[in-house]
Amino acid sequence: MKMIYWISTTLTSIFLLWSAYSYLYSKAAIEGVRALGFPDFFRKQLVVLKILAAILILVPMVPLYIKEWAYAGIALFFITAIVAHTAHKDPISITLINVVLIIILIISYIYLHKNNIGV
């Protein structure tokens, strides 16, 4: 069961770190955030929060209550992405990717508690 936790948590963290990197260095991602109507400071804020969230869910010594806040924040990232892309009338594939990411996040969260990971 720990394998399921680590695979789902690692996949979530990799996506968050890739997304944060894209928000900093990819002109397409930067323009995409602007096209969704978000100000530039919000993009930079998301970079910091995504990196922090990825670290918090990966490091085993982080207290459980802090990990739970990180999971809530990550869920909010994905839900906000679904709402923003739907409102922008982007392809359904973007929404489906975010739904899959939410499912992976839920699996990680469930197995976090099943394995009693976090102090």
Overview of the molecule:
Helix content is 83%, strand content 0%. With 119 residues, the chain is mostly helical. It has one domain.
Name its key features.
mainly alpha; 119 residues
Number of helices: 5
What is the end-to-end distance? 18 Å
Compute the number of strand runs.
0
Strand content: under 5%
Count of the separate structural domains: 1
Uncertain stretches of 5 or more adjacent residues: none
Oligomer state of the chains in this structure:
single chain
How much helix is in the residues? Answer: over 70%
Radius of gyration: 15 Å
Main sheet, how many strands, which sense, barrel? none
Query: What shape does the CA trace take?
Result: globular
Layout of strands and helices, then pairs:
Elements lengths: L1 H24 L1 H9 L4 H19 L5 H24 L4 H23 L5
Helix pairs in contact: 1-2, 1-3, 1-5, 3-4, 4-5
What's the short story on this structure?
This protein is an all-alpha fold. Helices cover 83% and strands 0% of the residues. The mean pLDDT is 94.
